[in-house]
Amino acid sequence: MRSRRGTYGLAVLTAAAMLAGCAAGGGGAQAGGALSGGGAEAAGGAQAGGAEASGSVQAGGLGQDAGSGVSETVPALWDVHTTQELMAADYLMYRVNCGAAEDAGGETGLYQTAADQPYGADAGTGRQWGYRPADYMQAVEDDTGDGLTRYRWEIGEDAEYDAEQTGFYYDFEVPAGTYGVTLGFYNPFSARTVTAEAENQTVMEDQKILKYQLTENAFYTTVTDGSLQLKVYNPDRGKDAMKNPVLSYILVRAVPEYTADLLKQLLKQTEIPENVIPDRQTMRYTAGSYEAFTEQYRAAEALAQKDDAPEEEYRGQYMALKEAYDGLEEIKVYDSFLPGKKWTDDEGNLIQAHGGQVQRLTVTDPATGQTAEKWWWVGEDKTNGSSRSGICAYSSDDLYNWHYEGIVMRNVESRAQLDEEEYFTSLYADYTPQQKDNVFACLDAGSAIIERPKLIFNEKTGMYVLWFHADGPTETSNSSYAAACAGVAVSDTPYGPFKFIDRYRLNTCPPDQEDFHPQSKGMARDMNLFVDEDGTAYIIYSSEENLTLYISKLNDEYTYLAVSPEQAVYGRDYIRLFPGAQREAPALFARDGGYYLMTSGCTGWAPNQARYYRADSVLGEWENCGDPCVGDDNHTTFESQSTCIFRVGDAFIYMGDRWNSEDLKNSRYIWLPVAFDEAGNMSISYTDEWKLP
Ligand code: DGJ
User: Of 383, 386, 396, 671, whose CB has the highest number of CB atoms within 10 Å?
Assistant: First the structure.
């Protein structure tokens, strides 16, 4: 084990230790992910760089006179800095953003104030460091990168390349000691290899770097002469300029001696107040990250009591605590809408309420018995893909920050579950076995498609009624969208559980009109609800294989059509809209005595151009008013699909889904302000961030 004082001894480090040591450093957000890959390959270089410092290295830095820089005259790291000092700097001596302008911003190491510089005294710290300037070096800014990957050194294309000499040379003034060095590479070029020397020893050989993939390589090197020398080049470049080396960043870290004392210091540094989880106002960290952290904190506390554990053990625990501490995820508190960005709830989890609807409700919290007005968001939980989990609800006081209220209508895992699990046995206590068979067939978590849930409150019955697009295979078809029905469930509280009643085919094309899909009658897919001022509720849905929208009146309970399809009178009980126009994702709302209907085209999960319509009454004449999106050059409704437009005071908000068909749970929400001119024409413009008026 190396000595902590006096002349620096030999550093004998295993590859695993080296990897852990550098991983602890992290190297910033970008570095974290790739380090394990780079670190693994650094193994070979560990011994090479760490084993010995070259006696032939001239002290004094790049191009400087060697002077009398022998190891005895160079103070050791631990004589120059206290553990606390180094710890506060996260042991980072240099963090060089290669090729960056001086004002490139970002954090810097302890000995450095510029992002990068030619070799010389640092303007802030006086330490000698930097690169050796050469005509062939080109600093390049890359706007696909961020932070440390924003800039890099390249070799000019026309430069004469000398296999041994051409490269990037850096020198860093450091006290004698062992340092963990991480080199980062991020570039738009085809695959190539890079080699590095530290203290004249090859520490990284033929490291492969791939196009736009962050690659890191980490190694240890021991410095005795006060100056850490680095060279990054490609000796195998030959005549192929496509193999020129690049270099994005360099991290130089001091390597601590891992002891019980060091662990105690870290415990002191990472001590954080209790995460008061039950009180969401004061919860700062996501439950998962906080649990992981406390587990490591407790383990570190226990180990720090021992003073004779092997250094490996202190190191491992140090790293684990550090990693858990760095991994603490603060819960974001919002004060604006950020369309298209990750949106997390007040526990830090991604909001799962796709194809949803927001409204103002007076709700009584079943847990506290308190009644309050809340914004209420229902939507599809896509945690397990399509919509296997059920329908979720969230509540909010300000529309920016949402609290998860759970799954209000659960899908069913198996037929047996309906007879065995308390949730279902009490919910469906009065259902016959045949009715339960139907519940399972319609809500089967393995096959049912439950989309676009919409909730309305029935003043007369005091019940909350939830309608949704209920689809899935049928007895005659395996297609997951074969059923094409509208499902309905009820509860006496918006918190649920909602009890599934049934799913239905709805109205059909009258015989005197052209049916665009006569082979399958009464289909109902994308849907929405609307309750008019007089309390009449309507269901708006895509029918005729999504070619024609329908609006149908609901009964007084809102649980079925006002009149069955067989008895329904066209124009009184339902209407067809825009036959053959192929519209879906309807969102109907009223404003200033008129009615508006926002729609999308039908292109699966891919976004398409919006179109809206206006009418004087719900079952009246609807006029096509075109695309309300302004500046939507790609005609994709700002890459979203409508699901709801709701009123907030005098304002209206457009809610859309930006579907991620590859990973539906990671679909984003696009909420935008809706504007109206004096004639009542509606427009929606894009903005990255906005607040309520
Ligand atoms: C578009 C609909 O609007 C969505 O709800 C969903 O059903 C997808 N089609 C499936 O492709």
Answer: 671
